Amino acid sequence: MLNYNQALPEDTLIQDLQMKEVRPIMKLIIRGKKRNFISAIGKSLNILLPTEANTSAQSDKLAALWLSPDEWMIYSNEPVDENTNNYETEELLNNNISKLNLGAITDVTDQFVMINLKGNKIYELFQSGSPFNFNDFQNKKGTVVQTILNKIDVIMHNRDKNTVNLFVRRSFSQHLFSWMNDAASRL
Amino acid sequence: MFIINCPFCGKREQSEFKAGGEAHIVRPKQPTELSDDQWAEYLFMRKNIKGIQFERWNHAHGCRKWFNMVRDTSNDEIKAVYKMGEKPPTK
Fold it and tell me: Which of A100, A126, A154, A164 has the fewest CB atoms within 10 Å, counting from its CB?
């Protein structure tokens, strides 16, 4: 139930760069190598898992991010409202994937904190703390990258022009957030 | 600092990777039949050449996959990158 607790202090707006924690967001890590794994996911969730590196797929309710050739992250587009630890999607996948030995489903809802960043200076902020080259990333909607930001592992999802969803481990989130605030104030 | 072309994710900075030592070391088929010296040879002894070396690398802060790399250790020039299980390039 950690996901219902606020991990970060207040949302901030620095130099028209808006940063806020979005919660509660359902997040799953799914892993599978078998050929019918992807089709089984597709049938269950009505979403085709991206097989091309650093890309994502989207449906009305969910987004699927490519993390590795056999690993994806699925998260809900909108915050989930019910006050429970059971998520429909997870249960569905548990029945359709895990129980049939097609792959593994892990609930990482409480593990990751999702930070939504908006503004035309977000890439300047990322560049000040990440070795990744954001030139292609920022122009292509839906791109995903796993990289380091201020020495912290993060997953970034280019949601829209100048809008990025950033996932960071919960225990690192406060530190990263305070660094981002500090770095943003110097842009 | 140099750029490594991860066979799964594409070009990334070296700080995202971890080096995993020499590649293509074959585990002896019958470890029980080896002498201690032979076992130690397999377990600990690495070439550490100055020049072209075959290495294992892990994209630790990215896709977390292992892959092989041919690198010139004298100038850090990367000659080739290939996936685990693939045959090393001959030249």
Answer: A100
